[in-house]
Amino acid sequence: MAGVVMAFFSVGFVHSVIISTFAPEHETICSTMIEPRLHYFDLGPTVVAFSTTRFGGCSIGNYAEFNINCYCGDSEENVRKNRVALCSLLGIDDNRLLMPHQVHQAKTLRIDEAFLRLAEPERREALEGYDALMTNLRGVCIGVSTADCIPILLYDEAHHAICAVHAGWRGTVARIVEQAIAEMKTAYNTRPEQMKAQIGPGIHLDSFEVGDEVYAAFADAGFDMSSISRRQRNALSHQEKWHINLPLCNRQQLLASGVLPASIAVSPICTYQCCSDYFSARRLGINSGRIFTGIMSVSGPVTRK
């Protein structure tokens, strides 16, 4: 790929959308050309990094409009058409758009030429049970699926190696991002101090209320609870509950792994608060769409307009 031309959209979107009530007439959108509306991250001139929004697809209801996750109950046909639209936008074939079937653990799968030669059923089986993907192949878009969990993109420009990480609270407790960086060091000779990292849209401190057992899991795992948590009164029950700062937990892991502070960007978008633009399972329920946060190394400079 000599270069990629992308349309650029700002962080904020203004839409007259009511939560979980996208109109049925969106079913007809698939009869015309659709174009996913992405939010891009700047990780470097030869890498494409983005999160999908809810706009520019053909799914309906709580999956509207753009969802490519086939594990959350959406129509297989709408998922297929949305994938086709995203691949067209990225300029790649469907077999180069990869997403694991995540299980809230801490395993990373390396995508290499041997993986790309697998037949589709073998690919699906190989992608089962991983929460992070990494590769140094150009023109392959790897990504993870979230709807409040924290997506993290890693980029090692020196070795054109990339990684996409899904960090829910369980994966964060298991220190998945630290483990992913360790895997990149082994596979690609990555040096963390030369990496760039983007923490994408996810649930933030004010909205991430947890039970005492989740608080205890973080405490038992050695997190500095004074920096990542606080007690906050629930507006409905009027009881004080623990809240945890998942983006900060993962930023701390990046720093502990050797990534420089200036090389870590954190999205200000809270999916719970912005569920009209980004999927939130806590707001919409688990039978709803998912954000796809992806990254792709390319051989030429990326131009966004």
Describe what you observe in this structure.
This protein is of the alpha/beta class and 305 residues long. The protein has a domain at 24-191 and 269-298: CNF1/YfiH-like putative cysteine hydrolases (4-Layer Sandwich), CATH 3.60.140.10. It has helices at 76-90, 113-116, 120-126, 169-173, 176-188, 212-220, 225-228, 246-256, 281-284, and strands at 4-6, 38-41, 47-52, 97-98, 108-111, 132-135, 141-146, 150-156, 161-167, 196-199, 209-210, 229-233, 240-244, 264-266, 291-297, 302-304. The radius of gyration is 19 Å and the shape is globular. Residues 1-29 have low confidence and may be disordered.
Q: So how many helices?
A: 9
Spatial arrangement of strands, main beta sheet: 5-6-9-8-10-14
Beta-strand residue percentage: 15-25%
Helicity range: 10-25%
- In the CATH classification, which architecture of the domain at 24-191 and 269-298 applies? 4-Layer Sandwich
Helix/strand order: EEEHEEHHEEEEHHEEHHEEHEHEE
Quick one: how many beta strands? Answer: 16
Question: What is the CATH class designation of the domain at 24-191 and 269-298?
Answer: Alpha Beta
- Class based on secondary structure composition and strand pairing: alpha/beta
Separation of termini?
18 Å
- Biggest pleated-sheet summary: 6 strands, mixed
Overall outline: globular
